């Protein structure tokens, strides 16, 4: 908001001021061309006026750059906080249940695949924070540089933890599904063997 107001102020001031300076310069040139008795004084005033105007333009440009830099820094902090909040929210959504049977475990496995797809969408936002932090760190020193590093580190560490937990859960679900499938195969095989045994025992014994 402040940046936009100053940009508008700077634009209006530059336009109006340039018109007035140009008019003053034209008047001074006319006086000098007409051979005014105070030509030297008029020329000095003209030079002083143009120098003051150049200083004012430089001051406005410097102020505009400072506001732009401050705006970019605050935007980085806001984006970093938003990214951290989203990563932490996804971390809280990660369940611990593995399922008590094969259908439940397979359903949880499918849900986790969708979950991993969702968190992958966060990678672009995290990467943007990391890239912005690296770029801004070159322009700042001291406390601001440390603050930039803290924000970036918080996001990167939370993102690393989220990915680690997600990968760990994926492995657990894979193991759980594999275990239930093995148990089902064993149960089916035992039932089959029981059936074969009954058939064998049920046959008429030879006399």
Automatic annotation (TrEMBL):
<dbReference type="InterPro" id="IPR018159">
    <property type="entry name" value="Spectrin/alpha-actinin"/>
</dbReference>
<dbReference type="Pfam" id="PF00435">
    <property type="entry name" value="Spectrin"/>
</dbReference>
<dbReference type="GO" id="GO:0003779">
    <property type="term" value="F:actin binding"/>
</dbReference>
<dbReference type="InterPro" id="IPR002017">
    <property type="entry name" value="Spectrin_repeat"/>
</dbReference>
<keyword id="KW-0677">Repeat</keyword>
<keyword id="KW-0009">Actin-binding</keyword>
<protein>
    <submittedName>
        <fullName>SPTN2 protein</fullName>
    </submittedName>
</protein>
